[in-house]
DNA sequence: TTTAACATTAACGTTAACGTGAAGTATGTA
DNA sequence: TACATACTTCACGTTAACGTTAATGTTAAA
């Protein structure tokens, strides 16, 4: 049996799908966040893993993480130390970020409660005004 | 009985307490997010409400919300329309942001799961390597 | 009342994360 | 083979969110 034929994407295809520009994707590569395969003719080819990685990056961005932090979270692709050390590093960063995420969840809860409180106060004032 | 003497803060006092710089606080004011009282000599004076508002702003920032979005969330202090309209507007934005927050919670969960998955894969590879 | 410790405004500087071409070349698809 | 895409490199532009500096005013304490 031949190895499962992985679905491949061109840069602009992927960009459209993710709602970003090819420029951004190349920029992420420049910053060492992804490292797609290339065709014989040097064109970038993206697979499932790359797509997933990009989604992670975008999710991170939506949460205000810098590309630098995201790199730490999911692991740089360049500057290879030994593989084991690489992995251990990623693990350490990953743990930190997990903590971080859990802390953020708490904060989101706080924020939600505060917004709800603000809302309720506003509603109260509104009815006060309208029934005066 | 005199009105409860509210505790007042100077800008750098508040900045220290919140772990930011006076510059940032002034900038938030410039962007219409806060509007502290002034002394006779034009120096800024902050009260409890201001402090709370700043905390909200910072929380928002930690989540990657732009100052613009935060302003929408908690209401601009300038461009006064009628009070009722103001309030209704804030309510609308607030509702949106609540939705937003709930969506983000979902995303955080996703992110956590993915990070955990990454972690587990990494751990697996690590033991693979070490026991080879 | 002087002085040290803050504050104020104004303006220019900085960094991250891209956007926007330009220019010339290579690749891939109908 | 035509034509849309993609590539690289380069460089300049842009926006948000402050940092920094300068020149001056305010305030609390001694």
What does this 3D model show about the protein?
Two copies of one chain form a homodimer. The first copy, chain A, has two domains: 1-79, Multidrug-efflux Transporter Regulator, Chain: A, Domain 2 (Orthogonal Bundle); 80-132. The termini of chain A are far apart. Chain A has a two-stranded antiparallel sheet with strand order 1-2. The first copy, chain A, has 132 residues and is mainly α. Chain A has helices at residues 11-18, 22-30, 48-62, 67-74, 83-130, and strands at residues 37-38, 44-45. Chain A has five helices and two strands, in the order ααββααα. In chain A, a hairpin with a 5-residue loop joins β1 (37-38) and β2. The interface between A and B is large, with 40 and 40 residues. Chain A binds a DNA duplex (30 and 30 nucleotides) through α2.
- What's the CATH first level of the largest domain in chain A? Mainly Alpha
Structural class by SSE content of chain A: mainly alpha
| Beta-strand content bin of chain A | under 5%
Specify the CATH architecture of the largest domain in chain A.
Answer: Orthogonal Bundle
How many beta strands in the DSSP annotation of chain A?
A: 2
Could you tell me the radius of gyration of chain A in angstroms? Answer: 22 Å
- Domain module tally of chain A: 2
Q: How many alpha or pi helices of chain A?
A: 5
Most extensive protein-chain contact, per-chain counts: A-B, 40 and 40 residues
Provide the residue-averaged pLDDT of chain A: 83
Question: Termini distance of chain A?
Answer: 79 Å
Broad shape of chain A:
elongated
Order of helices and strands of chain A: HHEEHHH
Spatial sequence of strands, sheet with the most strands of chain A: 1-2
Oligomer: homodimer
Briefly note the CATH topology name of the largest domain in chain A: Multidrug-efflux Transporter Regulator, Chain: A, Domain 2
